[in-house]
Amino acid sequence: MNLVYDFLYIAGMLLSSIYIYIFYKSKSNGLSKSILIVFFGILVFLLLESYAYIHKITVLQRISFLPTQGAKIALGPLLLLYIQSLFLENKKVLKNGIIYLTPFVVFVILVSLPQLIAIITEEYFIGYKDFIVKYHPIKRILFDLIFLFFLFRSFKTYSKFKQLLKSNYSHIEYNNFIWVRYLLIASLIVIFIDLFFVGYQLIYGYLGWRTQNMIMVFTVASIFYGAYYGTKQSKILVPYFLLENDIATTSNKDILTKEQESEFSALETVLVHYMETEKPYLDEELTLNKLAVAIGTTDKKLSAVLNQYIKTSFYNFINSYRILEFKKMIVLPAYTDYTIEGIAYECGFKSKASFYRLFKKETGQSPSEFKANLK
């Protein structure tokens, strides 16, 4: 079994190191890249610690001790900071980072470092080792719960910013979200497995083997999957989209005054007329700001009309017109020799995957089924 662990741990460290190299060489100079380097650096130390434990390599155990003892209360905050760094200014993210990572720093200074010194010098306080063994499961559960708290915050932040993007951009590559979503789901699975093992041990006693090894096996599996999946994406690891600083914010109020209803109704009329006559949706790079300027209003007001009055997002509004245009174009003799994808691109879609997904959602049919039913 140790040979299997050896292979997995070494491969996991190698792949994580490759990730770190890719991040380092990335053209992006943003804070998100630095956070991911730290995140995967901690994973390398976790795998190194598990490898050293199996083979009783004291030097490696001591080298990996400090970064791994409180890893969970570092990895959780790092995930949240990573997502925030994709959308917020660096100053705000760094300010949050000081707060989020304080427990990890305090734990390292007050617990991990003294413990490492005691291990090296072999001088322990009376009852210290017994205390660590006795309360280790409680510490493990506490750290898992802290990790889950930050995962919950990360999912919430991820969903919020994803919706904001859809309120400002007519085209969003689905693959741009894959890496963020993958990191969160993989982390959630691993932490639930860890909670299962520690809960089982508290109820039924120790299993007789190191459950940490199994946790790291699942971690390596996640790294493998990330490497496999990442090679299939046009944009991997570090999403290239960033919210503009002046992104429009929408009101949460659903109740409109009579004056607002009148104003929004008039603006909707202008908007619909412009969409039907000028067909701005054929521009695959159309944004909320571009459309607002074209109809003589502000992006904030246009966003309010779409979200509060028409009850849709900019993303869905524009793509509904693109789908209607596709339905019109596919029956025209001029497009007989065009492929389905070719017509979709003519209608303003930039991604085949996005087009197929949106068309299916809008019509209940795939584009191929729709075309076949026309005959």
Concise description?
By secondary structure, the chain is mainly α. It has helices at about 1-25, 30-55, 60-65, 65-70, 70-85, 90-100, 100-120, 130-165, 175-205, 210-230, 260-280, 290-295, 300-310, 315-330, 340-345, 350-365, 365-375.
Topology of this structure?
Blueprint: H1 2-25, H2 31-55, H3 58-63, H4 65-69, H5 72-87, H6 90-100, H7 102-121, H8 128-166, H9 175-204, H10 211-230, H11 258-278, H12 288-294, H13 299-309, H14 314-329, H15 340-346, H16 352-363, H17 367-373
Helix pairs in contact: 1-2, 1-10, 2-5, 5-6, 5-8, 8-9, 9-10, 11-13, 12-13
Question: Characteristics of this structure?
Answer:
375 residues, mainly alpha, Arc Repressor Mutant, subunit A, Rhopdopsin 7-helix transmembrane proteins
What would your notes on this structure say?
This protein has 375 residues and is mostly helical. The chain folds into two domains: 2-230, Rhopdopsin 7-helix transmembrane proteins; 264-373, Orthogonal Bundle (Arc Repressor Mutant, subunit A), CATH 1.10.10.60. It is 74% helix and 0% strand. The protein contains 17 helices and no strands. Helix 1 (2-25) packs antiparallel against helix 2 and helix 11 crosses helix 13. It is elongated, with a radius of gyration of 26 Å. Residues 231-253 have low confidence and may be disordered.
Taken as a percent bin, the fraction of beta residues is under 5%
- Number of β-strand runs: 0
How helical, in percent, are the residues?
Answer: over 70%
**What is the radius of gyration computed over CA atoms, rounded to a whole number of angstroms?**
26 Å
CATH architecture of the largest domain: Up-down Bundle
- Termini separation (Å)? 60 Å
